[in-house]
What does this fold into?
Amino acid sequence: MTTPLGQEVLRGSVRLNGLAVPLALVLAVGTLWAQSEMEDLPRAPQIAGGGPASSQSDAGGRAGASATASTDGSVTLKQLGLPADALDQAERRLPSPEQRAATNAAAGFPAAPASFLPLEKAAVVQIAAAPQADPWAQAQQAVELVGSVLAENDSSDSRRARLEELTADIGRSLETAVPDGLAAKNKALAERLDAFKQLLDSYFATSYGKLSYFSFERYSRWWRRRGVASELREALDRLGAEVRAARAAAPAAGPAAPALAPPVLARFPSRAGAGLKEGELPTVTVRSPSGKLTRVHAFPDAGAFAVRVMAPEKGRWTATAASGDEVSFDSTSTGGKSIRIDPKSPKTFTRADGRRFTPVGMNLCWVLEGNSPQERAEGWRRYLDKMAATGQNWVRVWCCPWSMFIEGNQTGVGRYDAKAAAALDRVFELAAERGIYVQLVLEYHGMLRPKNDWSRNAYNAANGGPCQKPGEFFSSAAARRYFKRRLDYMIARYSGYENLLAWELWNEVDLTLCNPVNVLRWHEEMGAYLKQHDPAGHLVTTSTAGETVLYAPLWMQRELDYAQIHIYRRDLAKSLPGFIDNIDHYRKPSLAGEAGQDAAWEPYIWETKFDPAAIGLHDALFAGLVSGSAGTGMFWWWDKYIETSNHYGVFRPASKLATWMEAMSGDIGKASVSVSGSKVRGLGLHAPGRVLVWLKDEDYVPTEKVPTPSAVTRGAARVKVEVPAEGSWELTRFDTWTGEQKPAGTVTAHGRKLEFEAASFSRDVAYLGIQR
It folds into this structure.
């Protein structure tokens, strides 16, 4: 049973000034708008009957209706009939009453009525459970509200704040609604999008904060006379028509990755930590529905303790602290299992259900947009949205002094920054919602370099740490104990995320210039510690800047699950496969965790439009896939290059090829490829029943003098490729720049050699073969 207002909330709308507004939009336009509208929301009527009725829960975990309204007429979550297990999620996404009061006071707003707080929680729960809102509908609704706000007679300050939020909401909706790269390839759409933005700016780009009350009123009257809402509505409709036409003309994108199962957060009171020494974490025993027991640590959380649990079994779970406190929760998920090494193909990754996992992505080591946590999270969301929309499923994230610095000079050794940790929580949540796995870098080389960030290192004796010199970080017994304590904290807080692909202990550890023997022993010890204490068994890796003295000994360690290279070369299509060959004999997956063109390090490059055709990015992606690496080459220049030049569309064809490759079963091997003629390089892979050939024009490489070389058409060539078996093979020509596929005939293999004629091409092309 729900109140009339509760029923409206459950349908996903509330009424503001007589207009039905989606709850998603209410939250999107921000807390300030919601607070300014508090008094306009109808109070929920008292539920008739007065006497308490029993509250029950059905098998789906939905709380029954409470029969008694609160004394002030406010609506409770139980009265709205919302899922009881979603309350915790709602509370975590909303500001605390203290935070809300401080925000209101700073902004000059009155305190929010109590009646709205459960409605906000209800909105969060409803939106989390509902499909993602249509961005066009959100933009259209915001445009409609512009007219509504301008027509009101309330205070100028109130309308000022709401118009600012509406303008931002329209912009955010358009970012989602207009597919990445589409405008860059469609002149008509680009012109229409620019026209709409100019129209929006002409009305609302004026700095509201600098307008006096009377100036703002004059603007408002002028906007009303001009019929702003009508003009914007018409312009938005024209833009929508152009987007639909561009979508119809563009090749279809691959399916978006499904969201990954979120972990369960179970909270315990502060007494769970009673009797522990400083820095020690309480131990919690988790029992699965099948009776399996797992011991995990709880981490400090808002004055209490919490455990984050990956719950891959359906049914009732219990978590019991040493203090005797117990928390139970139900899991409906059969997911929630980490990525593993494929036992049948030890150079590749596999999902819990046995399907191959091929990382496709880029570095996104930090996002420095904005000053507040909300602004930073919005920056991460914008990047991850674009990555997910173009088929990416992997991202590399750093913990470093300028981003998510969990243990540093600001905390002291053995203490952890709760705000930095919460920011990393949000990154994991945003990535999981988009099906993106995170490779988490715990340390970067500059932390042990005196000219970089040694002065900010918590382990530095100057900051109260145990190390007089940087190299002692690896050799000091006290430093190693403190680092294991940090690993305990990181495991407790993040191992419950299914989308944690791997712990990367160090970025380019060879650049610390520390004693190699100590570095190797340290990795062996910390890798073993993670293997022993991470209940989810996430993968472990590290990275080096090059083929230094640490290179081979590190990848020989069994505690490190996969090898990484960082490669910056002019011709990545030529160089990257050679690097992969050098680590192929370790019989473990390899990944180019950083890739880029060496010239990109030169400061003048960014002024000369370096590689505007994205040749290097394209080659890193495809050379990684076809060289025998476990995934694409992961480009480094995410902000100065991919984002500013809008090169996200380059990832779509690579993602489609990776999806095709995931059907390759059994052990995948490199296939020898020979190509008749000159200036064409061939690479190949084969597995039982499948073969892949990539043909690349050797001259199509950006240089300093010629950033965009001409795409010369190479004539037809005879290709010979090694295949697993004789017989009939059906070939498909794959356009590596558009993802378009065309039948290329059926060919018979003799003596495990498949010979076919590749039609003329420019830049590069791939051929996919399936045995029939």
